[in-house]
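Hey team,

Filing this mostly as a record. A colleague (T.K.) asked me to run one chain through the structure pipeline before their review meeting, and I want the input and output archived in the tracker in case anyone asks later how it was produced. No errors, nothing strange. Just documentation.

Input sequence:
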Amino acid sequence: MKAKDPIYTFDLMDRNHENRIRFHYVIIDLMADLIGGELRSSDDAVDAKWFTPEEVEKSEVTERTREFLRKIRFIR
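Output structure:
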């Protein structure tokens, strides 16, 4: 992959049972060009996979992910 410009940014706070912040994530999604190699997960994910728009619609993804994919017009 060759990273390009950021296209979407948001943050996510993971809270414990006392509503205290456990983790605060800042997510910056970049547009990228596939220039070669093999898709694989790293230390930040259990698995990695390419999805068609139809597969995303049937998958369990967060509403923020759906919002992002709508914004970039990958799904409706």
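Quick notes for T.K.: The radius of gyration is 15 Å. Residues 38-76 form one domain.
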